[in-house]
Amino acid sequence: MTAALPLPYPFDTADAQRAMIACVAVGVFAPMIGAFLVQKRLSLIGDGIAHVAFAGVGAGLLLGVWPVWTALAFAMVGAVGVELLRLSRKAAGDLALALFFYVGIALGAVFASRAGDVELETLSFLFGDPYSVTGAEILTIVALGIGVMIAMSVAGRAMFAVVTDEDWSRVSGLPVGPLSVALAALTAGVIIAGMRVVGVLLIAAMMVLPVASAQLVARSFRGTLRLAVAIGAISSLVGLTVARPLDLAPGGAIVFVAAAVFAAVSLPRRAAPRALQQEAH
Predict the structure, then answer these.
(1) What is the pTM assigned to this prediction?
(2) Among positive and negative, which fits the CA dihedral 110, 115, 117, 122?
(3) pLDDT in tens, 88-115
(4) Closest Cα to residue 253, out of 195, 202, 216?
(5) Which residues contact 125 (CB under 8 A, 6 or more apart)?
(6) Contact residues for 192 (Cβ-Cβ < 8 A; gap 6+)
(7) 168-206 residue pLDDT tens
(8) Residue 30 near residue 82, CB atoms below 8 Å
(9) 14-268 in CATH: which number?
(10) How far apart are CA 224 and CA 219, in angstroms?
């Protein structure tokens, strides 16, 4: 996108329009994977893999290559490694996640410190900078998103069975190991797609918060998935809309909106039982 389309402020520039496309794309497909992670009670796996991806960012800066590719490689290895450790019972899921979590952030800090004067670039990957997203990065984000959607359409039912009950799925003959590894790899892909938008420190929030809000309203997994996608897209658009005029960090604004939606949905539900108890007395 070389020339800006005739859109109103704050989307009147080409940079803002590229940011809008990237943010809405991430807002759509991040909750798609997040719904499966929440169902599997592995909400924090996104944080762990994101920290491993940061090691890849540091490696890319050190080697002088596009950090997205090195981050993708590190995130894939980390995601598959966590899942293989968990499946082999050699380490509990939370312990395996902690191992990769701390090693990843430590490696990222070491690599980035050896790369020279790259503080601004490092911060853009940590906290996101959608206004600096290039056309090539948008293509990468959209391609990863399409890959996630295709995978969900092909293996979504089987993955849902696995994340709901691994033992039943294994008895039923489903390939639990390959499906779990595939889900971990898709999680890594989503993290890489979203790190330039909301950053590696906040992308996990976009995978979990819309799902948490949707679960309080929807009555089925499919309904949760659809509502979470809608909340993610709207949160991204609203957050980006208020970020520019208020001079806020776009990634933080997007996550704050998603958190506000969760608060708006959850608080009335908590207040209702209390009101009923008071009436009973």
Answers:
(1) 0.86
(2) negative
(3) 765 555 666 677 778 888 888 899 888 8
(4) 202
(5) 54, 57, 67, 71, 195, 196, 199, 200
(6) 53, 68, 71, 72, 75, 144
(7) 998 989 998 889 888 988 999 899 888 888 988 899 999
(8) no
(9) 1.10.3470.10
(10) 7
Closest of 241, 245, 222, 244 to residue 233, by C-alpha: 241
Which two three-digit tokens encode residue 44? Answer: 């924090």
Sign of CA dihedral 200, 97, 205, 186: positive
d(CA 123, CA 117): 12
Give CA angle at 274 (235, 216), nearest 5°.
30
Query: Which two structure tokens, joined as six digits, stand for 127?
Result: 């906290």
Q: Which amino acid is at 77?
A: V
User: In the chain, where are the structural domains located?
Assistant: 14-268
Residue with tokens 């996101």: 128
Q: Are 186 and 62 in contact (CB under 8 A)?
A: no
CA distances from 223 to 31, 154, 215 (A): 12, 18, 9
CB 58 within 8 A of CB 110: yes
The pair of three-digit structure tokens given for residue 114, joined into one six-digit string: 């050896």
